[in-house]
Amino acid sequence: MSLESVQQYLQSHQQEAVEQLQELLRIPSISADSRHRADVHRAAEFVRDRLQAAGCTAELVETAGHPIVYGEWLGAPDAPTALVYGHYDVQPPDPLDEWASPPFEPTIRDGHIFARGATDDKGQMFTHIKSVDAWLQAVGKLPVNVKFVIEGEEEVGSDNLDRFLTAQRERCRCDVAVVSDTAQYGPELPAITYGLRGIIACEVKLQGPKQDLHSGVFGGAVANPINVLAQLIASLHDTEGRIQIPGFYDDVLELTAEERKDFAALPFDEQEFCESLGINGASGEAGFTTLERRWARPTCDVNGITGGYQGEGPKTIVPARASAKITCRLVPDQDAHKVLASLEAWLRQQLPPGIELTFKSFHGCPAVLCDRNSPYMAAARRAVATGFGREPVLIREGGSIPVVASFKQILGVDTLLLGWGQNTDNLHSPNERFSLEAFHQGTQASAALWAELAKP
Ligand code: BES
Ligand code: ZN
Q1: Same domain, yes or no, for 244 and 183?
Q2: Ligand minimally distant from the alpha carbon of residue 404
Q3: Is residue 266 in a domain?
Q4: DSSP 189
Q5: pTM for the complete prediction?
């Protein structure tokens, strides 16, 4: 049978696949950092070249930001078409001194490959290129048509992707999208994710007096921007962990009783969870479990804060300014624009005299929920079971992948979120890693998916 020869081909070419992944991981394609523009481009070229070597047509599509790699193999006219999305850009690697090996010198230890982007998303994305490669080398054709959209701006909000999908809607037409940029549920427990949270992001700047002032001469008579910022931040939550922005929960889709039951049935050790994070207890919105809080409840988090004197010893000033970066994770059916507007209004209405606020919004995307009972989902479940030797569980996740909502809105398709990573892979953190076993299992699952999707 042809899948068997693909499986054997993958088995005997594992080393080569790992070496190619290492080559990709050596490229510091940090999309947020303009000094790495050329590196980001080089990573796009690498992906294009690997797609071409596999037997697909592939090209770079330049955008106002970083290029999108578009590739396709359309040799199965009567079969369905899957569109694989992934990203070749990575998060900045800092803090550098917390890495055991340099972030762009991929190193294999303890069965894992350590590098920035190992799991998010170079390693996961690459499994689909290698599975297509294996079908085309071992069998000469695929059971389905496959398209690839691999972008370089996911970690900075996918600003140019919607324009691409809208302009190239015909070219991107497909029956289902496939994304591997999430995680398994746990060690040796593969998962398919049917829901993701959305996000809004903003920066709030407070300007007080035109320059820093002596806090003895002026303190008490002039609003202190840092004190005010702290009050504004404190006003985001009540003591029960509920967000106090007026109207914030208006459109929140509540969990169904069935989902709550399904979440509760998943193996979850709260103590182990806390220990793995180095905290002595979990905390959040009252009335919800940790999994519910992470996957299906909205949040408001301050991501960074600046202001005032940071040097050695004391300094008696009323600082001139302060700022904070804030993100909210959204759940279905919250509207990103509406939440952003109500957050800004809530902050503005609390300002004392003497403080001016500027509010800048960044990227945003809505949350998504996919059909748990579609035939594509059934095919994906069988494929993951084949690749990992174990039935996957169905879960939601708390992270955001903006393109999934775009696929629904622009292309009208659901996405299969097939995560090969682990939440312990340190994504966005020092010592990011990806299990080599998961890399190979994911590639096998991907290879099986093409066969499963072709079954009526
Ligand atoms: N791969 C993650 C998203 C993710 C992680 C989903 C874990 C589910 C589980 C992705 O690369 C990411 O980090 N996305 C950003 C999106 C943002 C910049 C718009 C995120 O969620 O912060
Ligand atoms: Zn990612």
Answers
A1: no
A2: 1
A3: no
A4: B
A5: 0.93
